[in-house]
Amino acid sequence: MVDKQLLKEVLDLALANGGDFADVFVEHKQATGIGAEGGRIERVHSGIDAGAGIRVLNGESTAYAYTNDLSREGLAEAARVVSRAAKGAKKDYNLDLRRVEPLVNFTIRERPDAVDTGRKVAAVEAADRAARAVDTQQIKQVMVGYGDVVQQVVIANSAGDYVEDERIRTRLMVQAVAAAGSVIQTGYEAAGSLSGFELLERFTPQSIAETAARRAVEMLQAKPAPAGKMPVVMAGEAGGTMVHEACGHGLEADLAQKKLSVYSGKQGQKVAADVVTVIDDAGMADRYGSYRFDDEGVPARKVTLIENGVLTDYMYDRLTAGKEGRASNGHGRRESYQHKPIPRMGNTYIAPGKADPERIIKETKEGLLVKKMGGGQVNTTTGDFVFDVAEGYLIKDGQVGPMVRGATLTGNGPEVLRIVEMVGSDLGFTIGTCGKDGQGVPVSDAQPTIAIKELIVGGTGHGKANGQIRRL
């Protein structure tokens, strides 16, 4: 996209008035999106966006400019802008750009940009039909969304690093709405990864659609959730929404350094139960939040954040790492060339334990089993959260009982991690787009089946619901 000689010239211009560090992020992104609603294809769009972001760091300040003009003059003008904004003592820097090698590699079997649009449309239509076929009377609405992105980046910096990378992601989501009388319920399911069109071989459109539609239909018969404090078992298939929101954001170094995290200044301290280990590993294969390099050109790696209950590390980008005189651990991410990098999660999860997931349920006398999480809110400064339960069941005498609806979970992230009693040997992932500072990036999060001693469960029912025992 941009040759090395031009990159050197741009970096030289950016540092003309001083600064500690400069980098250039060049991006070419091709995206396709297909949506269906009301039983027909509503939109098919594709587009290309290209541009570059240029940054100069000087102490704790950042000067950043971006342009979609990749000509020599366009890049030079952006470099001059940041140079004027980043005045300071001139430092030695290295423009002998050397290619940085990744610590991990990924294989793409079927590039989505080589797949005919007709095949993508057919996959969306197949998902729509499969969802409606689950219950032709009660399924009232189906929404299907397909998307793929082919992103090529070049990163160069004044430390002499040079990176070329390509990121290819594919995803499919289905939302189904079911109704019976005055009761309306929604089911949602999605799959996505750092992969090509082969994603839809592992997660077929039919299976994704059927899961979403069945969840919506079954929720119509669910009983109102009881309210009160009770033990909660979170199944592995519920994914890591809680660890991502109630824990992960607080372990991003910028929030910790600004004292906006409940985990600020607690490195080396006990912050969770002995059975809890939290990891972010952007180098995992076939995960939506994976990457070979972060958006500052640092190779992705496995970072243990909490080990056996002890806080061991935070997620750093170059700026936050520099404040502590250490190296970045590969978590500087950005939405696009129009945004500066900030510390972000990739694939965040609670590591599997040794307990049999079925035994965890059997040893729970009574409580709530959560099999799918919904949306929620988190205060990263305090760790307080409220989450919706998209699919939940009562547990009675170690058996899975009736489905309930309208449940919410209220608690405090760090406190929840302290009262985790058992951690299962399984691991279930969910995908999403994580928002922070106006930027969205693809992430995955996961957890095993875990037993939490007690959470506040909000519901619309009264007392404890009764019903037939249902086995997993």
TrEMBL record:
<dbReference type="Pfam" id="PF19289">
    <property type="entry name" value="PmbA_TldD_3rd"/>
</dbReference>
<feature type="domain" description="Metalloprotease TldD/E C-terminal">
    <location>
        <begin position="228"/>
        <end position="459"/>
    </location>
</feature>
<feature type="compositionally biased region" description="Basic and acidic residues">
    <location>
        <begin position="323"/>
        <end position="338"/>
    </location>
</feature>
<dbReference type="Pfam" id="PF01523">
    <property type="entry name" value="PmbA_TldD_1st"/>
</dbReference>
<dbReference type="Pfam" id="PF19290">
    <property type="entry name" value="PmbA_TldD_2nd"/>
</dbReference>
<keyword id="KW-0482">Metalloprotease</keyword>
<comment type="similarity">
    <text>Belongs to the peptidase U62 family.</text>
</comment>
<protein>
    <submittedName>
        <fullName>Peptidase C69</fullName>
    </submittedName>
</protein>
<feature type="domain" description="Metalloprotease TldD/E N-terminal">
    <location>
        <begin position="22"/>
        <end position="85"/>
    </location>
</feature>
<dbReference type="GO" id="GO:0006508">
    <property type="term" value="P:proteolysis"/>
</dbReference>
<dbReference type="GO" id="GO:0008237">
    <property type="term" value="F:metallopeptidase activity"/>
</dbReference>
<dbReference type="InterPro" id="IPR025502">
    <property type="entry name" value="TldD"/>
</dbReference>
<dbReference type="InterPro" id="IPR002510">
    <property type="entry name" value="Metalloprtase-TldD/E_N"/>
</dbReference>
<feature type="region of interest" description="Disordered">
    <location>
        <begin position="323"/>
        <end position="349"/>
    </location>
</feature>
<dbReference type="InterPro" id="IPR045570">
    <property type="entry name" value="Metalloprtase-TldD/E_cen_dom"/>
</dbReference>
<dbReference type="InterPro" id="IPR045569">
    <property type="entry name" value="Metalloprtase-TldD/E_C"/>
</dbReference>
<dbReference type="InterPro" id="IPR035068">
    <property type="entry name" value="TldD/PmbA_N"/>
</dbReference>
<feature type="domain" description="Metalloprotease TldD/E central">
    <location>
        <begin position="111"/>
        <end position="220"/>
    </location>
</feature>
<keyword id="KW-0378">Hydrolase</keyword>
<dbReference type="InterPro" id="IPR036059">
    <property type="entry name" value="TldD/PmbA_sf"/>
</dbReference>
<dbReference type="GO" id="GO:0005829">
    <property type="term" value="C:cytosol"/>
</dbReference>
<keyword id="KW-0645">Protease</keyword>
<dbReference type="InterPro" id="IPR051463">
    <property type="entry name" value="Peptidase_U62_metallo"/>
</dbReference>
